[in-house]
Write a structure and sequence with these properties.
Alpha-1,4 glucan phosphorylase; globular; alpha/beta; single chain; Rossmann fold; disordered N terminus; EC 2.4.1.1; 48% helix; 25 strands; binds ligand TH1; 1,4-alpha-oligoglucan phosphorylase activity
Length: 826
């Protein structure tokens, strides 16, 4: 059985861009028709909103044709479908990508210009669906793009949040969150089917019953229901006919099921109950890499997973597939632990609803699920208190207890080690009884993978060590990747043209072809063109930031960029200490401003609303920016830009402009990172630690083309073991002391010494992620950065080699690894 519904067809392996699905005349006709009959306006009456919707509907037409053909083909082939279960999809703007995959970009531009409409203005009108927090959600979006591009029968399942990741604003330098009203311009990309809603139960009780064979059985009687309404998004492949589906579930109140709770005539309570149910898909939890132990979060998880599993299992059984053969036709990929409640849900479906024997159901279940772990931080591992879990999902808790009991009996039998039994239990006893979702995922999955080589190794050595000793073959690695369509072809058109001229257009579908650039790294003509592209992209972002944020930046400076969620382990504070130390040394007279290579430091970062240290770091960055950007002593040689609300839309403009990519987490803490890949592919050099996928980037691009610094993971581990005392580093490093003292003096807070007191004392007394220990090494490598930047030819050569040598980081390659190591592996 092959997962591919069709292998890559010869015409799909084309070396030219997709041919347009409509010509300009036809485009104009369909577009004006849409204006008239779906918006009800004439061209002169039409607002930008009307025109945007008409544009979307015009581009959707050829996609819908391909979508329907894909569904027919996939059903007929009756192969294996990959179902990606993810609580987050950080899609980014849709219009540009749809124009790309339909080959309609030039046609649309030409057609609209005959109507005096500027395509780019309409594209800019779109508000991106920010239905994810950061890397994990963006990875899911890259993966569904690659699954379609590789013609794999696949479906993404998730939640259609009414409010995605909050919109970040700064008020006096402090982060203030605003609701993300991404649907306020309508949702023209979505095809919703309220009539296909499914009821999802919660709470209630479990009863003894007799099944249809006269055997004793258990039956869950939920206490209340909510309807899951499917909202479909089209996921077009590039250079292929495949258009897959992303199915996001929206919660709607289910009155008919709740009649017994809502007293008839009790209007107020009936309305309140509606609101309660619909609350489930209302808002994305804004925590990244940290779990939210709230009941609503568990409701969200069960809601989308139950609807998704039922949807795909029912459709597969309808095709005549037997229960025993389900694992040949379905694979559920669990994106972290958020969808792991799917394991007991499939058991419940098979045992209680379909009346399979427990052992048969369990062997099917363990064949169907695979689990991807995305973290190493112990506090980021999800656990659910059993009382909360049992209240919301009483039957599922019973099932988990039975799975655990049988599993632990087996461990006991095989190892005779009672300590191991307790360590591996799916239920933790201390400090409170709770379900360990990572353990449940590992026990219930056929394969478990980490997201970069180092991360997968550390998973086996630390976080899941007992399990990897017990099941050595269960564990594997799939290094993350990013889609070259969005993050090179769409976001960096100038570089794309240069690549097309140099090596043809095949790289967009086969990024390994970038290696053909290698010889051009020694071609001075090519290096010059490459430098022009970078310069163009810097002017482009400078213009964007001027218009968007009122930030004025020089375009001839090192663009040094650190964009990612604000987290202590990612160490934005280390970057800040570097900047402050330059300023402090100029003030102290130990550094001449003229000797600083002009540099623009760009930060982009949202902090989880309840994460105090992260929010204070944001305030400190803004305070330092306010001071440094106007400091006469610096003679304009150093600027900080911190545009608010970093998102996919901004990333697409910012990443192509970067010279330097900051990937400076403490080694052993960043599972992979994916921004690091996007920067390297756009010709930025990385300054980074040996952490996550940096390790593989460093290895591939070569040490001469990478600014490596800091402790290794074993170094950091031994320092922690030895007892890390950050104040010792402060005492012995004069530059570090100068920088911290300047912040403590109130220099960035109008003399208020208390303003950043908690950050300063954290540095001195805790510094859990050892920024102070890596400070000297970081400063030294930044001096090397300046030296290299002064040698333009050497810099550009390294930048080109970064592009030439990082084709490995395509998400198409990641998906091929999932096929080879997980989905199709025998
Ligand atoms: C991120 C990891 O931090 C990052 O290193 C990795 O590149 C990315 O996932 C994709 O694999 C994670 N995001 C989350 C978000 C939540 C929980 C855990 C993680 S790990 C909500």
């Amino acid at each position: 059985m092959d997962a591919r519904t069709s292998t890559v067809s010869p015409e799909a392996a084309q070396d030219h861009e997709p041919s347009p699905a409509l010509d300009a005349t036809e485009f104009v006709r369909v577009f004006t028709n849409e204006l008239q009959y779906t918006r009800g306006v004439t061209l002169p009456q039409a607002s930008n909103q009307d025109k945007y919707i008409a544009l979307v509907r015009t581009v959707l037409r050829p996609l819908i044709d391909r979508w329907q053909a894909t569904q027919a083909r996939q059903a007929e082939q009756n192969g294996k479908t990959v179902a990606y279960l993810s609580a987050e999809y950080l899609l980014g703007p849709q219009t540009g990508n749809a124009l790309l995959s339909t080959g309609l970009e030039d046609t649309a531009r030409e057609a609209l210009s005959t109507l005096d409409i500027d395509l780019d203005e309409l594209i800019a009108h779109e508000i991106e669906p920010g239905l994810g927090n950061g890397g994990l959600g963006r990875l899911a979006a890259c993966f569904i793009d690659s699954l379609a591009t590789k013609d794999i029968s696949a479906i993404g399942y998730g939640i259609r949040y009414n409010y995605g990741i909050f919109r970040q604003t700064f008020v006096n330098g402090h982060q203030v969150e605003q609701p993300d009203t991404w649907m306020s311009h309508g949702t023209p990309w979505e095809i919703t089917h309220p009539e296909l809603a499914q009821p999802i139960g919660f709470a209630g009780r479990v009863e003894d019953t007799i099944n249809s064979a006269g055997q004793p059985a258990r039956k869950w009687v939920p206490g209340w229901y909510v309807q899951a309404v499917p909202c479909n998004y089209l996921v077009p492949g590039y250079g292929t006919d495949t258009v897959n589906t992303l199915r996001l579930w929206s919660a709607r109140a289910a009155d008919e099921f709740n009649l017994h709770i809502f007293n008839s005539g009790d209007f107020e309570n009936a309305v309140r109950a509606r609101t309660y149910a619909e609350n489930i898909s209302n808002v994305l939890y804004p925590e990244d890499s940290t779990p939210q132990g709230k009941e609503l979060r568990l409701q969200q998880q069960y809601f989308f997973v139950a609807a998704s599993i039922r949807d795909l299992v029912a459709r597969t059984l309808e095709r005549g597939v037997s229960y025993a053969d389900l694992p040949q036709h379905i694979t559920f990929q669990l994106n972290d632990t958020h969808p792991v409640v799917g394991i007991p849900e499939l058991m419940r479906l098979l045992v209680d609803d379909h009346e399979l024997e427990w052992d048969d159901a369990w062997s099917i279940t363990r064949e169907i699920f695979n689990y991807t772990c995305h973290t190493l931080l112990p506090e980021a591992l999800e656990v659910w208190p059993v009382d909360l879990f049992g209240r919301l999902l009483p039957r599922h808790l019973e099932i988990i207890y039975r799975i655990n009991e049988e599993f632990l009996n087996e461990v006991r039998l095989n190892t005779g080690n009672e300590l191991l039994v307790r360590q591996m239990s799916i239920i933790q006893e201390q400090p409170f009884r709770a379900v360990r979702m990572a353990h449940l995922a590992t026990v219930g999955s056929r394969r478990v993978n980490g997201v970069a080589a180092l991360h997968s190794q550390l998973l086996k050595d630390n976080v899941l060590k007992d399990f990897s000793a017990y099941w050595p073959d269960k564990f594997t690695n799939v290094t993350n990747g990013v889609t070259p369509r969005r993050f090179v072809r769409l976001s960096n058109p100038e570089l794309s043209d240069l690549l097309n001229d140099a090596i043809g257009t095949g790289w967009v579908r086969d990024l390994s072809q970038l290696s053909q650039l290698e010889p051009l790294a020694d071609d001075s003509g090519f290096l010059e063109q490459f430098a022009l592209v970078k310069a163009h992209n810097k002017s482009r972002i400078a213009a964007v930031l001027a218009a968007r944020d009122g930030i004025e930046l020089p375009s001839d400076a090192i663009y040094d960029v650190m964009v990612k969620r604000l987290h202590e382990y990612k160490r934005q504070s280390l970057k800040l200490l570097h900047v402050v130390s330059l300023y402090a040394r100029v003030l102290a007279g130990t550094l001449n401003a003229e000797d600083i290579e002009p540099r623009v430091v760009v930060f982009g970062a949202k902090a989880a609303p309840g994460y105090r240290m992260a929010k204070e770091t944001i305030a400190l960055i803004n305070a330092v920016a306010a001071r440094i950007n106007n400091a006469p002593e610096l003679q304009g040689r150093l600027k900080i830009a911190f545009p608010a609300n970093y998102n996919v839309t901004l990333a697409e403009k910012l990443i192509p402009a970067a010279d330097l990519s900051e990937q400076i987490s403490l080694a052993g803490k960043e599972a992979s990172g994916t921004g690091n890949m996007k920067f390297a592919l756009n010709g930025a050099l990385t300054v980074g630690t040996l952490d996550g996928a940096n390790v593989e980037i460093h290895e591939l691009v070569g040490d001469e083309n990478f600014f490596l610094f800091g402790m290794t993971e074993p170094d950091a581990e031994s320092l922690a073991q030895a007892g890390y005392v950050p104040s010792k580093f402060y005492e012995k490093d004069a530059d570090l002391k100068l920088a911290i003292d300047l912040i403590a003096s109130g220099a960035f807070s109008n003399g208020d010494r208390s303003a950043f007191e908690s950050i300063v004392s954290d540095w001195l007394w805790h510094d859990r992620f050892m920024a102070l220990a890596d400070f000297r090494s970081y400063l030294d490598i930044q001096t090397k950065v300046e030296e290299k930047y002064r040698d333009k030819a050497a810099w550009n050569r390294s930048a080109v080699l970064n592009v030439a040598r990082t084709g490995f980081f395509s998400s198409d390659r990641s998906i091929q690894d999932y096929l080879d190591r997980i989905w199709m592996e025998k």
